[in-house]
Amino acid sequence: MYEKIVTANRGRGGYCMQVNLFFATVMKSLGFELIATGGRVHIDGGPGEWSHQVNLVQINETIYLVDVGFANPALEKYFGIKLTEKEQNAIKGTMTDLK
């Protein structure tokens, strides 16, 4: 996967699942808390199928949606995700299970 994404010099890395999984592996090896999860792309005003993969990365107390596998140049801003306490506890539990 490293060769395909980083060194192949083909102008693109791969499908969202491949690129985001590779990114997740690198981030975890650097000590970040992260979970990979499904995502839906909204096209023409409505959500599509659950056919996309994204990552949730916790940095300090903020959880970020990180998607390095979505080829849309409009998404160039970083933002934290506000979750309920129940959602935060569920994610933290999942992150603990991934260690």
From TrEMBL:
- Protein's UniProt keywords contain Transferase: yes
Q: Which Gene3D superfamilies match?
A: 3.30.2140.20
Q: Which InterPro entries match?
A: Arylamine_N-AcTrfase (IPR001447), Arylamine_NAT_domain_sf (IPR053710), Papain-like_cys_pep_sf (IPR038765)
Which family would the database say this protein is a member of? Belongs to the arylamine N-acetyltransferase family.
Matching Pfam families, A to Z? Answer: Acetyltransf_2
**Has the keyword RNA-binding been applied to this entry?**
no
Q: How is this protein named in the record? A: Putative Arylamine N-acetyltransferase, pineal gland isozyme NAT-3
Arranged from A to Z, the UniProt key words for this protein are: Transferase
Q: Which organism is it from?
A: Glarea lozoyensis (strain ATCC 74030 / MF5533)
A Gene Ontology molecular function term for this protein is:
acetyltransferase activity
